[in-house]
Design brief:
single chain; 379 residues; Rossmann fold; 2 domains; eight-stranded mixed beta sheet; five-stranded mixed beta sheet; 14 helices
Length: 379
């Protein structure tokens, strides 16, 4: 069916699902460098893209990979790369390039144990703050965190749609267990998916601009198609030309950040489980949320009023929802495979006592540890 994955039910892993979801979304260019545990995404794209008229390049490193997908997107193709923590670190400068040039791309970061090269084959969630603050300067990232094979497919489509709608790189912060986990994947017919298509201007008019600081969205242009414009990494005006004026910097940054802030209600996704009467709320994402949900089920059987809030969109942070919960509950519990990253904004915006559970990188979260912490706050 036009090279797309046929509708049906599959038994697949998260890396397979991420690659096929990207293809369903229209990805036709992939540049990457092999790195555990995301290499299977690269391998599948190397086979699949040539089958459907797309392009695959194995780059010399992650710096070049990020540069290549920014370039390919500016040439008109939906583009993507996949990596893990050390490679994600190397991509940060060119991630900023994608932000300032408003270039839609998707970066899949499959988190593994760290710091540095850590345990390449084991799970981690240590890139959460890097996804938010990794590149220098001010910007507002969009970051999704799947917790299943199905979400790996669905959120790949969501990420490409968001990249097109808000014209910026979008991050998928999955983790090693989700990437290598095999379970059911249901693929619908292509016409049942909402796919945001790339809007491209073909011809320049005298008053047209490369960027628009007053609108959330302006169609891109492709060099060599009759449109004269400038795309620059420096602070620039709406024509794309560099400027040393602080007033231009202010206008540009307020646009880059504002287009996300104004649309947070459309972007932010989350799952709530047993929240209505909860006195204690667990905030968990990725593979950790699956262990947390099981712990909540067991605690509920014993009459403990605990619920689960799972951010599907890590960034923008679901500030309004966490504030509302913080006004009526006793405690937040934040289990993570790190030593406290997402717990910081939960504590800040929830204005509530927050208990952290630190699973060491490399360790799959144990629901019994989460359950023990729940029992300790319900004497």
């Amino acid at each position: 069916m036009n090279g797309l994955l046929s509708p049906g039910k599959y038994f697949a892993d998260g890396n397979f699902a991420s690659a096929e979801g990207a293809i369903m979304a229209g990805c036709r260019f992939f540049a990457g460098y092999p790195i555990t545990p995301s290499s299977e995404v690269l391998e599948r794209m190397s086979r699949r893209l040539p089958e459907i008229g797309g392009h695959f390049i194995e780059m010399e490193d992650e710096i070049g990979s990020m540069a290549a997908i920014v370039g390919a997107s500016n040439a008109g193709l939906k583009s993507m790369t996949a990596t893990s923590g050390p490679g994600f670190s190397l991509m940060q400068e060119n991630l900023g390039l994608g932000i300032v040039t408003e270039t839609p791309t998707v970066v899949l970061d499959e988190m593994r144990a760290g710091p540095s090269t850590g345990i390449p084959t084991r799970v981690g969630q240590g890139d959460v703050m890097q996804a938010r603050w990794g590149s220098h300067g001010d910007y507002a990232p969009i970051t999704y965190a799947p917790n299943s094979v199905q979400e790996s497919f669905d959120l790949a489509i969501e990420a490409f749609n968001a990249a097109e709608m808000y014209r910026q790189p979008v991050i998928i912060a999955t983790d090693q267990v989700i990437g290598h986990l095999s379970e059911s994947l249901v693929v619908k017919p292509p016409e049942e998916y909402t796919i945001v298509q790339r809007l491209i201007r073909k011809k320049r008019e005298e008053d047209s601009k490369v960027f628009s600081f007053s609108d959330d969205f302006i169609p891109m242009f492709i060099p060599g198609t009759g449109f004269k414009g400038n795309v620059d990494s420096l602070t620039h005006d709406e024509r794309g030309y560099p400027s040393n004026e602080a007033s231009v910097e202010k206008e540009m940054l307020e646009h880059l950040i504002g287009k996300i802030k104004k649309n947070e209600d459309k972007i932010i996704k989350y799952e709530e489980y047993e929240i209505e009467d909860a006195e204690v709320v667990i905030v968990a994402y990725g593979i950790t949320s699956r262990a947390a949900k099981h712990a909540v089920k067991l605690a509920r059987k014993d009459g403990r009023k605990v619920g689960l809030f799972r951010p599907i969109t890590l960034w923008p942070f679901p500030e309004a929802k966490i504030r509302n919960l913080g006004e009526r509950i006793r405690l937040f519990i934040v289990p993570e495979i790190n030593y406290g990253q997402y717990s910081h904004p939960v504590r800040e915006y929830g204005c509530r006592e927050t208990r952290e559970i630190h699973f060491p990188p490399g360790e799959i979260p144990d629901y019994k540890i989460i359950l023990k912490n729940i029992e300790e706050v319900f004497p």
